Fold:
Amino acid sequence: MQQQLREHLEQIVSLTDEEFALVLAQFTSRQLRKHQFLIREGERVREMYFVVTGLLKLVHTDATGRAHVVSFALEDWWEGDFAAYLAQTPATLSLQCLEDTAVWCLPLEGYDYLCRQLPQMARFFLVKFTRGGVAAQQRILSLLALPARERYELLLRQYPTLPQRVSKTLLAAYLGLSRETLSRLVEPGRVPKIVR
Structure:
């Protein structure tokens, strides 16, 4: 697990062995079972998470009780209720394991410490948060502007393995569709090939 984290960080920044040891000292690792929660709406968010193995879903439940899938987090992704994490306010999102999952956990104090002590880690997080913001904008635009089939095809291009790992109900909630609409887009028993 340590090597995977180091390789992930070093895709953006360089770290000496001593610097990586300092980074690693700020993290704890956790193993979770399918259906366990890392974050529940209304609770204080103490950590953000780097996914080593497994799959998570980030969900917001509206006033009517309807669950909206905000994102899925696969291996090598960072996930959390970042607004609540940075502001130390109650969570407005829940983060739940869809598979048995292993994560590295970074508390806010560790995040702040790394950003102060290692400028390259401040740069790493800036790059990651910026990319996440861009991806969120693109997702919003796709929900606003693209027809259902194009949203589904975009999901297949971006995350080709996701339909094999997630139920149609969850995919539909992520795409802003009903399950019935998604079923009409997908032939039973197979995922359509997307020409790139």
Q: What stands out?
A: Residues 119-145 form the longest helix (27 residues). Confidence is low (pLDDT under 50) at residues 190-196.
